[in-house]
Amino acid sequence: MRMRNKQRKTTILGWNAGSRCSMPAMVWSLVGFLLLLHFYSTLHKTDKAEETRLQMSHHSFQELQVVEEENIQIPPPRRRSPRAAKRRPRKKTTLIDEFLDENSQIRHVFFPDHRSAIDPTKDTGNDSFYYFPGRMWLDTEGIPIQAHGGGIMFDPLSRMYYWYGEYQDVPTFIAPKGLARVDIIGVGCYSSKDLQTWKNEGIVLAAEEANETHDLHKSNVLERPKVIYNEKTGKYVMWMHIDDANYTKAAVGVAISDYPTGPFDYIYSKQPHGFESRDMTIFKDDDGMAYLVYSSEDNSELHIAPLTEDYLDVTPVMKRILVGQHREAPALFKHGETYYMITSGCTGWAPNEALAHAAESIMGPWETVGNPCIGGSKMFKLTTFFAQGTFVLPLAGLPGSFIFMADRWNPADLRDSRYVWLPLIVGGPADWPLEYNFGFPSWSRVSIYWHRKWRLPSGWSDMKR
Ligand code: DGJ
């Protein structure tokens, strides 16, 4: 008898056809099934709507996902006397050697001269709407923009973008330890409504000329300034890397202003949590919480810490991330509920490979998901397009689309370092999906596409906040 029952076919609902089953049980099963169906279709509908929105926004960014190749030829070696050639056989030069050689015959490829400058004072027809990574970039008065190692803040009050960065318009000199340096001049600020034409708002935090013990004395180092707005206090707060000429102070500095265009009052510097802090950034989350990320322990790891409510200090909580990975130049951003970060390796002013990292919680754990650079050439990919990241700006109205901002440093003349801005897109499976969730990689791919020339999707300004 038991055997016969076992062989009976079972329906999906687990109800044995032909078995005795009460009417209420059948009704409840049906109600349950309908509820499940409703729940599933609601979920699916939300997914679909989100998907369509994403597809539309990605569609307008689609032309930017074309892989553009570069074929830069290494020039033939210069002639040497037969005796010199015998004494020291020539090492094969690479494109990076050429990039680092200020007398290279192909210098103009990496640092094109003023004739190709992006100049809003001149009518360049259709070209005026384009970014040209690596070319000289002039402000609305026709003067080269000085905002290196910078970042952009969208000001909710004036509805303007403000670009802050290192103002380096002075000669470069070689410091005793052999490092190329400039005196501190201050933090430059530029404003824009379209992220294309930039008006010089002046030096919003200036160097200290006389007081040699001041953090901002011109003989020191001020790098990577970033500004965020605090809704609770109504203040604009600037954080920056403060150091002495030999990079042994390794601290963060904080300044504050009532206006995005300053002047900013310098408050103090400190080693956060008692640790060294060199390359750094700050990030403001959707809930108004802000965080400091800094390279520490001889740049071997990054530290992340929430800021206090007024954004003027770090809280005692700190997490060590990317331990032993030797990363610097952190640039943090968020897509959906996931946090992403682009970092560089540690090779002074010389370019190196960028890596993207992802985390479900900003305090970690953070996982490395691969090199985000696409296009150019293998060498472009290995050198972050001959540049180093500094900031990632979300494009309002285009979820998953960002501008990756980087510096192409020119250690022979730091003020002539160039800006490399490129489209960054989040989507698709990551290169190194270290973690899997039910067979699907946990992270989306972060892609930065090389373009000699590119523009924001037409009508982007209409989609803005
Ligand atoms: C790399 C850092 O990212 C830059 O901001 C600067 O500190 C240079 N090193 C100095 O060599």
Automatic annotation (TrEMBL):
Bilayer-spanning residue ranges: 21-40
Segments of skewed composition (Basic residues): 77-92
Domain of life: Eukaryota
Site (Important for catalytic activity, responsible for pKa modulation of the active site Glu and correct orientation of both the proton donor and substrate): D279
Gene3D superfamilies assigned: Glycosyl hydrolase domain, family 43
Record key words, sorted: Glycosidase, Hydrolase, Membrane, Transmembrane, Transmembrane helix
GO molecular function, one term: hydrolase activity, hydrolyzing O-glycosyl compounds
SUPFAM superfamilies: Arabinanase/levansucrase/invertase
Entries under Pfam families matching the protein: Glyco_hydro_43
Span list, region Disordered: 67-92
InterPro entries in the cross-refs: Glyco_hydro_43, Glyco_hydro_beta-prop_sf
GO biological process: carbohydrate metabolic process
PANTHER family attached to this UniProt entry: GLYCOSYL HYDROLASE 43 FAMILY MEMBER, GLYCOSYL HYDROLASE FAMILY PROTEIN 43
Membership in a protein family: Belongs to the glycosyl hydrolase 43 family.
Protein name per the record: Uncharacterized protein
Organism, scientific name: Corymbia citriodora subsp. variegata
